[in-house]
Design the sequence.
């Protein structure tokens, strides 16, 4: 709705230096700062009383020149005021007052290259503990601070005072920030939204803009959405893997093809030759070799090979260690290991097989008299249900979300390190 | 239900659109007329509107709660820290109300009947105090001593430069607005809400140079 005619600008002479002072938001502004001598002038009436004459000689860089216009969120705004503020830790930030005669006022604030578009609200958020709720959105308390006005330029719709101290509290819900500024007279709430410096640069056709550094209090965590998406994706795949696993287990035959008892030789060098032959049929499938022993405070280790009689005695190596210890001490009785152990060989094709033992070793002190303890049996099962592949899949699927959750929490830690709320 | 009176100064028709109008202008001779019963009294002539960038004007129409209204009067109000405009609006269904534009905030309010015991005494009211109106709690935001610098069109009150008025603004979590006006001889209560400029769907806005 920008008209063609020149904007109405009221001018008068600065009572301090005589320079020309112009008022852009006529009828709105009540304090104007002289561009030449930086005196703050009361413009409520034509007496033009000087409120403050001296301002810091060091004029800060005003990155968006006063009087420039830019379109943000569909509305043209004119920069009418500038304030440099500082907190008690001497952190400085800049505030630009934006004006549109129809839409009223907004603010742009800049700290370390991070920009917020801010709107004052008359609506009072509900406070409870360290949170504030406005329109159903909950904000977390981030900072409690004091802002001191260090330098002003342009014009303002309220009485501006240099070195004025104002207490403030900030609550965040990225990309939004809720701030409460208060003094003895009033409480002012405003809602800000982080906008990219590129948006500001483009809107006001700026040549340069302060470089962004660090993390803004209300910066959106870039890893959080990835972490959430990855989590969802991982859960989806885990469910899928689980369904596939259930189907594959349902197809397992769990067929015992060999159940044979062996006795350990008295001398370890002696070989136990071979098992009976057994047949495997159907598609290649896994083979479980389960060893049942009677070891007590002892162990048996078997090194063997599964021999395919149809395929030129092709051998598949396996080993199986069984150990079982028990006893009692001050804490009571204890047991460790098991008398049973199994090994699973993947994808064994059909054919006739037997098992050869290369070596069977055991505790040298094993009681040679007790025949029972030297006995063990092998149970070979074809097509057993196995969960190990499933768990490996789950583990791998969890790596991606875990990575993003880690990055996300690192980001949050960096954000909250700057918080003055503990 | 508009009523037509003859201007006591020039005899031209002065139309009173709202039943509640007391203050009016003769569009022909620019006299300020104030209604006493059935008589009109001339109280000088209207002054030039102050130079400002308010987008509203007498004749601007808008919508509030689906009802169409038209701005028929304006009063510019001043206080120690600035100004705001109060626009008297008249609805097609004969209701009236106020649209205020203050430092870029817009709000609608209309007067409610009140009992004296629901409103604290002028001397007792303080910032932060909670007051209930129509079963909703409000908190006092500020208390201002106001003056009247410019009036035009139809207004349901006549405030001269000497009129003393204390204006108390209240609000709540629901963006509702309440206002208590303490005059020397009476107290008035207004209820309404803060709205965005676009919410009113204004038409026939004033053209602002350069905007």
Sequence:
């Amino acid at each position: 709705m920008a008209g063609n005619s020149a904007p109405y600008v009221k001018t008068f002479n600065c009572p301090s230096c005589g320079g020309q002072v112009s008022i852009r938001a006529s009828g709105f502004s009540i304090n104007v700062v002289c561009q030449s001598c930086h005196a703050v002038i009361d413009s409520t009436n034509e007496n033009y009383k000087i409120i403050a004459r001296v301002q810091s000689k060091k004029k800060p860089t005003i990155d968006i020149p006063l009087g420039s216009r830019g379109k943000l969120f569909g509305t043209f705004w004119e920069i009418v005021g500038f304030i440099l503020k500082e907190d008690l830790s001497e952190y400085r930030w800049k505030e630009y007052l934006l004006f549109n005669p129809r839409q009223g006022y907004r603010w742009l604030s800049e700290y370390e290259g991070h920009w917020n578009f801010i709107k004052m609200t008359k609506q009072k958020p509900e406070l409870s503990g360290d949170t504030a709720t406005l329109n159903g959105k909950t904000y977390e308390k981030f900072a409690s601070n004091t802002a001191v006005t260090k330098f002003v330029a342009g014009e303002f719709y309220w009485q501006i005072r240099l070195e004025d101290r104002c207490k403030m509290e900030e609550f965040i819900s990225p990309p939004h920030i809720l701030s409460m500024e208060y003094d003895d007279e009033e409480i002012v709430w405003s809602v800000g939204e982080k906008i990219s410096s590129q948006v500001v640069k483009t809107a006001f056709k700026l040549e340069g803009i302060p470089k962004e550094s660090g993390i803004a209090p209300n910066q959106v965590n870039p890893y959080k959405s990835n972490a959430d998406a990855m989590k969802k994706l991982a859960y989806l795949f885990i469910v899928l893997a689980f369904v596939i696993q259930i189907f594959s287990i349902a197809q397992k035959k769990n067929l015992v093809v060999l159940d044979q008892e062996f006795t350990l030789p008295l001398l370890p060098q002696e070989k136990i030759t071979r098992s009976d032959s057994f047949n495997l049929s159907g598609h290649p499938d896994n083979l479980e070799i389960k060893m049942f022993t009677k070891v007590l405070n002892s162990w048996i280790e078997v090194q063997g090979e599964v021999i395919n009689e149809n395929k030129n005695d092709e051998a598949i190596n396996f080993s199986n260690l069984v150990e079982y210890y028990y006893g009692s001490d001050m804490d009571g009785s204890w047991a460790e290991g098991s008398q049973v152990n199994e090994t699973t060989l993947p994808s064994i094709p059909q054919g006739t097989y037997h098992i050869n033992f290369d070596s069977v070793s055991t505790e040298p002190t094993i009681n040679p008299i007790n025949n029972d303890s030297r006995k063990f049996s092998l149970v070979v099962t074809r097509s057993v249900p196995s969960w190990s592949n499933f768990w490996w899949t789950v583990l791998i699927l969890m790596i991606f979300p875990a990575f993003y959750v880690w990055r996300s929490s690192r980001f949050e830690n960096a954000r909250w390190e700057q918080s003055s709320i503990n | 239900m508009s009523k037509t009176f003859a201007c006591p100064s020039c005899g031209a028709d002065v139309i009173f659109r709202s039943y509640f109008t007391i203050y009016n202008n003769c569009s022909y001779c620019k006299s300020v007329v104030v209604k006493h019963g059935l008589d009109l009294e001339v109280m000088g002539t209207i002054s030039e509107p102050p130079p400002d960038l308010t987008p509203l004007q007498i004749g601007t129409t808008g919508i509030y709660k689906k009802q169409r209204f038209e701005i028929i009067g304006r009063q510019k109000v001043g206080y120690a820290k600035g100004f705001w405009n109060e626009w008297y609006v008249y609805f097609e269904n004969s209701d009236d109300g106020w649209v205020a534009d203050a430092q870029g905030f817009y709000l609608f309010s209309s007067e409610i009947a009140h009992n004296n015991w629901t409103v604290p005494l002028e001397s007792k009211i303080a910032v932060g105090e909670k007051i209930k109106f129509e079963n909703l709690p409000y908190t006092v935001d500020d208390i201002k001593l106001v003056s009247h610098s410019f009036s035009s069109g139809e207004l349901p009150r006549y405030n001269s430069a000497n009129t003393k008025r204390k204006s108390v603004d209240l609000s709540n979590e629901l963006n509702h607005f309440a206002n208590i006006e303490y005059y020397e001889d009476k107290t008035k209560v207004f209820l309404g809400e803060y709205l965005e400029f676009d919410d009113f769907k204004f038409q026939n806005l004033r053209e602002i140079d350069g905007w």
